[in-house]
Amino acid sequence: GLSQYSSDPRTEWELSTYSTRDQVLEAVRNLRYKGGNTFTGLALTHVLEQNLKPDAGARLEAEKLVILLTDGKSQDDAKLAAQTLKNLGIEIFAIGVKNADEAELKQVASEPLELTVYNVLDFPLLSSLVGRLTGVLCTRIKEKSNKENTDIPVNTGPQLSPTDLKISAVTSKSMHLTWSPPLRPPKKYRIVYFPSKGGIPKEVVVDGAVSSLQLSNLTSHTEYLVSVFPIYDTVVGDGLRGVTSTLPLASPRSLRVSELSHNSIRLSWKAAQGATQYLVLCSAAPDGAED
């Protein structure tokens, strides 16, 4: 499977799209380069949430490898997103070209770094890595496969996926999530949320016995995308997704002016729920303007 990214990741094809080597090579030849920014953290989150799922072709019993190819320093937190993948047993290889930050490549890649980090000065030099990288990848897959327990169930659906996400008690700064757990309880849940119009994704990890969560410190009057992923020892189940908007902050109402004098006025209003202070601005109206 392959995804390109800049400020917004884009899936070019899924793991299950092609079934032969020739089809994949033809797809690579027809690939159009996507220029733009370098939001590597967002791209890694996209791969986890969109491309490494059973309905995208990720087999539960197969090893999961991510090969990151980048020519710049990430503009968001790539280290945190990469750690999430590595915590799930997904191995990351980092390949830098031109202006890539080698320190960042080492933070993103899995151990041992001498096998998983590569850096070249220009794109044509990537061809020199193919032979070695292919050998390392195949060896790592065999090593990991020999260590894994092979009795992991292959079926998905209700056995591995939660259902019925409900979002309630929405305020200007918080919302409450509940969901129904899958038939097979996960080890943990990973909850990812971010504003739909752009923003750095935030995440919370809770125990697999939990089926509700309060999200707080949100931005008022903002639409949020929320995803809940069940995490097992060697796989991430299908996620639940929801969309909801936080409420706008309450406003004071019914402003009244009284007790006018030559140099003072008295103001009164109905309180805004949740307000701890008020800022009152006063300025003289321009000549000829209405008071």
UniProtKB/TrEMBL annotation:
Cell compartment(s), UniProt: Secreted, Extracellular space, Extracellular matrix
SMART domains in the record: FN3, VWA
InterPro entries xrefs: ECM_Assembly_Org, FN3_dom, FN3_sf, Ig-like_fold, VWF_A, vWFA_dom_sf
Pfam families linked to this entry: fn3 (PF00041), VWA (PF00092)
Residue stretches making up the Fibronectin type-III domain: 161-250
Keywords for this protein: Extracellular matrix, Secreted
Domain VWFA: 1-133
Protein's name according to its UniProt entry: COKA1 protein
Organism listed in the record: Halcyon senegalensis
